[in-house]
Rieske 2Fe-2S family protein (Streptomyces pseudovenezuelae), 383 residues
Amino acid sequence: MTTIPMSPVPLPDSPSLISTLPGHYYTDPEIFRQEQEHLFESMWFCAVRSDDLDKPGAFRTVQVGRENVIITRTRKGELRAFLNICRHRGARLCMEEAGEVRRSLQCPYHAWTYDLDGKLIAAPNLIKMPDVDRVEYGLIKVSLREWLGYAWVCLADEPPSFEETVTHAAVERLGDPAAIEHYGTENLALGKRITYDVKANWKLIVENFMECYHCATIHPELTDVLPEFAEGYAAQYYVGHGAEFGAEVKGFTVDGSEGFAKLPQVSADQDRRYYAMTVKPTVFINLVPDHVILHRMFPLAEDRTVVECDWLYAPEVVASGADVSKSVELFHRVNEQDFEACERTQPAMTSRAYRKGGVLVPNEHHIGIFHEWVLERLGGGHA
Ligand code: FES
Ligand SMILES: [Fe+2]
């Protein structure tokens, strides 16, 4: 049994430094199980890009905590989410990560068949069992909301307020409720998606994203475009602040060359700036004048996190077949540099050197707030 104290570690001697979580928070399967229960299965979880389900019957399956969830589009065009489990004897309904059915989902075991609203519509000998309620034995629904063109699902019986726990992150970070709307993310088109299989605990990836102390060391291309990042102060450090492009920089591209036309609603003070934000627990949003980069994390084990990263552009940019590789390459490199750093750190989490954790310097102190948030969600009880 592992104890999760409310205050994880004693204060270091130096006031410049505050402690991180101890190493076992990144390696203990029991703590990961608690995080699955109290974070990923309790909060709104960003599951799929709505456009990926482009027609009725299209489906995607995603892992949310310990549950597998199927998200599909009904014949009326609405998105629905269900536990990916047959109500008969529990076989997994869809094994594929993505696919398409015509009108119904059929279990491969004994052929119980559900319509796209989850209702049981057919089963061998069902006619001879008139007492079976087809709704009651339908698929188990999961709550679903759409925001920024993504389907967010929540496994909780009573989901927390979407506004307080999801959209509020944008207000808190950008200081203005309208600021994120200017990018029209829900109307953008997918220009590129890259999936990264990262051998690191999800919290290392969050912590890394929240600070820029490492930018000068590992992100030469990014600091060329955003010179203020070389100072080590992340864009997330100040409410409403976006890092300004360097004077010579024409666009948010790997070599600072021209990007695409500014998205139509992006305001003058948002132009030539980069804004990063974290929507806890698993989403990062990066806003630049001509595109949006959105990361969704899927924590699969205490030491493994799959990250899907989408590059989203104005629909006409994607439809025209324009070459997006220069802007994709910039953040793809940033991702690889970041995830390599996280993978370099993960093995140390089991070392005696990290038994009490490490330290955060002043421009990383906001990561301490993230740690407190995690501890609070875990209840400060026993894991
Ligand atoms: S387990 Fe699905 S039909 Fe039997
Ligand atoms: Fe980074």
Remarks:
- The two ends are 6 Å apart (CA to CA).
- The domain at 45-154 is CATH 2.102.10.10 (Rieske Iron-sulfur Protein).
- The chain has two domains: 18-31+169-377, 45-154.
